[in-house]
Amino acid sequence: MIHIVIPVFNRKHFTRECLLSLRKQSNTSFSVIVVDDGSTDGTADMLREEFPEVKVLFGDGGLFWTASVNLGIKDALQHGAEYVMTLNNDLEAAPDFIENTYKWMKEKPEAIIGALEMDAATREPAFGGEIIDFKLNKVRHLLQELPKEQQKGIHQVSQLPGRGLLIPRAVFEKIGLLDQDNFPHYVADYDFTHTALRNGFELYCNYDAKIYTYPEESGERKNRQSKSLKNFYNHLFDIKGGGNLRDFTRFTLKNCPGPYIPYYLANGYARRIFGYMLK
């Protein structure tokens, strides 16, 4: 059985829709752990009253994404989970999402497998995995390269986000949990998948397992929509800033091959600083 871990902080309307979409799955062989990190909008009451089948763990508001996910993962592993999936609350799963996850999990039982992200508004594919080239400082978006007729099945990638990320127990046993000390909120998922890749685990994006996301609702997207000096500072230095320079530096030093680090850092700093102003 897959154990799904969902970290939440407020925005209970998203959590409700996410859990309702899981209730509609054609394959119900999974359990759900929600980690509520100090929500103040009635999330806990809603979970207790509307979703009694969901296990809820609580934080005090200081866990952020990575520690919340780790708390859920540890609980799942302690209860014998062979596969853990991390899932954000601001998305909905297609009815055959779990069914198609199992389909390819059986083909690649030792691999980490991500999901195809669809834009909830347009119903069009939005993200299908990435291949990073540290030498050229370039990220290839696989979805942009694949013809429509090939956008199915699984495709090998080199990094994946934590939205719908299926992780075998063997990965945790070899490399441990996500790095909550260095990456408390963002980047931990990418760092984790890079670490797994270096340790011999394959990464795939499953184009048959679809999740519907709301990109305009992300904190970083809203930060960019309302530009100000304060939001610019938050973008670069806040723990939830999408361009956090500390996180980027730590990620680079940990994952980029040594000879390419200076150029990769310089290019990345420039993109984060000037990109905020231009986009």
Automatic annotation (TrEMBL):
Keywords: Glycosyltransferase, Transferase. SUPFAM superfamilies: Nucleotide-diphospho-sugar transferases. It is an enzyme of class 2 (transferase). InterPro entries: Glyco_trans_2-like, Nucleotide-diphossugar_trans. One of its GO terms (molecular function) is glycosyltransferase activity. Pfam families: Glycos_transf_2. Signal peptide: none annotated. Residues 4-115 form the Glycosyltransferase 2-like domain. Its EC number is 2.4.-.-. Belongs to the glycosyltransferase 2 family. This is Glycosyltransferase family 2 protein.
